[in-house]
Every structure is written in C-alpha cells, then in structure tokens.
Amino acid sequence: MSQLFATRNILPIGGWSEKAKLKFQRLINRELDFNRGVDEMDKMVFNMTRDLDDTPAHPRTMNPFLAADHINLVPVLANMPHLMDLELRYGVKECGMNFSWRLYQFTLNDAKRLAEALVLTSSLRRLSLTNSRIDDAKGAIVCQALLDHPNLAILELQCNNLGKETAAVVAKMIKRSEVLNKVDLSDNHLGDDGAKELAKSLVRGISLRVLNLRCNQIGDVGAEALLLVTKSCITFVEQLNLSANRITGRIVDLLTESMKVNKRLEKYDLSVNKLEGLVEGRKLQEALTHAYHIQEFWLQENQFPTDFEAMIEELLSRNQEARLEQVLLNVERTSSFDIKKVRFPTEEEIRYGSESDLSDEGESSEEEEESNSQKAASYRRQMEEYSSSDNEVSGHYKSTTSRK
Predict the structure, then answer these.
(1) What SS3 class is residue 282?
(2) Rounded to the nearest 5°, which phi and psi values hold at 241?
(3) Cα radius of gyration rounded to whole Å, the chain
C-alpha cells in the first residue's frame, strides 16, 4: 500500500461521493501509519539485537536481579497518528533456557516511555495493557498520561499488580472523560481502598457503563461504598462485576435496595464470594421478583441452597422475556410497518417460480396478477407437453424392445 500511494492526498479518479472519498483517504492514512510504525519497530529491534552481547560482562547477564528495560514505543507510536486499538504485553518472546523473571518486569523507564508515547495517540479508542507485572506506582504513571485523553473509550488493565494509587488516577479519568465507556481492572490488588476511590468517581462518571473489579481482594467495606453510590441512582453504570472477592452477606440489604431503586444497573456479578444464609437468599429472591429490569444476576459458587440458583434463573428468564415484549411493543409504536398490508406469495408462485415483486403497501395491480397467472398457465402447459412427449418416447422404446 505504501508503494502504491506515495502521498496522502492521492485518490482514485471516478464518480465517488465526498463521504466515500473521505473514508478511502482514512484507510490509506491508517495503512501508511501502520507501515511506518512497523518499519521503525523493525529497525529498533535490529539495533537492540545487534548491540546485545552474550558475554558475562554484559549488564543483562551480569546481574540476574536487575530488571531489563523493554523497547521504546515513542518513535513507533509517533508515526501512527491514526491508531485506534493498542494491545500491549511486556515480556520476552522465545527466551528459551535464558528465562528470568527480570525480563518480564515492567520497569520505571518502560512506564515513562509508554506514558510519553500514549500522549501522542490522540485517536486511540482502546488500550489493553495486560499480564505485564505492572505495580501500583508504575500503573499510576501510565494512567496519568491518559487523564485528558479525548477519545479513549475502553481501558483494560487486568492481570497486573495495581493498587490504590492507580485506582485513584483511574477515578480521575472517569470523572473527567466524556467518552470512557468501559474500565476493566480485574485480577489486581485494589482492595477496599481502591474500591472506595472508584466509588467516588461514579458520581460524576457520565459515560462509564461497564466496571469490572473481579478478583481484587475487595471486602464488605469496598462493596458497600460501591453499592451506596449505585443505590443513589446518580450513576450511569449498567454492568458491575464484583466476582471472586471477599464479600459476605452483610451487603445483602444494601444490594437489594440498589436492585429495587436503580433501573440503569442491569447486570450484576457476585459469584465466587462468601454470601450465605437462608434469610439473605429470600431477600435477594424477593428483590429480583420485583426488579424486571435486571437481565443478568450471577451468584454461583456462594453458600446458598441448591434450589436457589434455579429460582434465580427462572426469574431472569422472565425478565428477559418481558424485555423482549417491551422492545417489540416499542417497535410497533414507533414504526409505520403494518403486517396486514404485506402480500405473501401464493402456492402457485412458489411452486412455479414466479418472479413477481411483493409490495409492502398493498396488493398488486390486476394486470400484474393476470400476467402472473398467464405465465403460470404457460409453464404448466409446457410441463404437460414435456411429460406427454416423455410418455410417447418411453412407449416407443418399449414397443421396439418387445419386437426385438
């Protein structure tokens, strides 16, 4: 692509609309940016591998406890101004027998360089930085560079070692951003303090819809802070994941109040926790009976009776059917489509392959019906003649064979 289009202003000649030309120009720009970024990365990798020395005096092999810096992404992302999706995982590929955990550590220089590179990606829509052993201080440095990002909608930082400091910076992002739609901080070490920081941000987070805090060592204190905000109905969150934490039955009363009051929050996940008790199970069942807006409610791997999960599934299926009926009613009210005015094909048209057009406004004209019936009749006559000719040929063949 870079060989075919030398500049960004080249467009094919033809009768294209302005919208099509603009879309084609964007595709060219992204392809050129990608090629430049790949070329720059190839040069850097070549220089790094050329400068490496396998002798014991080299700093990478001299101190096995010293973490090694990874590739600098600043010159790479500087040549990709139209980048929209970025997935990163810091480590070493195909290290073989030279394995060492220091090669898989996210260093301070890595954090500073990545923060500097992310400032250059104003068009970025999704950032995924997972399984990179990022601690709390370095994660805060990276997230600090995204505070005023204009287009970031999805932030995925799961499977790291993030804590309260990073949660505080992410909370500021949620407050400031108008486009941040999903935050995934699962498999980290936020704890109750990190959950409190995020709960404060939900009051002003007008764009956030999905918050995933699975497996973060959150207890009753952090869960209560989050549920107090959701109960107040001043949040726009639609999905809340608190599975695989340390939540007990103390939050059931607050949870049932949030289920009854907050109509925006439709999906809860509290599986793999320490919820228990017959009374608590009855309270949840009663709240879900009246909460028709809830579409998903996960409570697996808790200490409730075996019949409780089956009752929850029945109530959820009822809610989903009610939601589907409501959607169909809204479609009938808002649209001008009338099923009674649609003319369906007859059996003859289906059998003989009539190609008449089906109008949504009413029945076809009399002339079209006559022409269709004439076509069907002529097709029927041809089939009868063909079958009669076959019978004559078969009779002649039988007579000749009998004579022989």
Answers:
(1) helix
(2) -115, 115
(3) 33
Bridge partners of 126? 85, 154
Tokens of 305: 């009776």
Burial 37-60 (b: 16+ CB within 10 A, else e): beebeeeeeeeeeeeeeeeeeeeb
pLDDT tens digits, 221-276? 999 999 999 988 778 999 999 999 999 999 999 999 999 999 999 999 999 999 98
Residue type, 350: I
CA gap 300, 45 in Å, rounded: 47
pLDDT at 1 over 50: no
Instruction: Say if CB 184 and CB 162 are below 8 A apart.
Output: no
Provide DSSP, 178-213: SS--EEE--SS--HHHHHHHHHHHTTT-SS--EEE-
- Give per-residue pLDDT as tens, 65-111: 445 677 889 988 988 889 999 999 987 777 777 777 677 788 889 99
Residues whose CB falls within 8 Å of the CB of residue 378, separated by 6 or more in sequence, listed in order: none
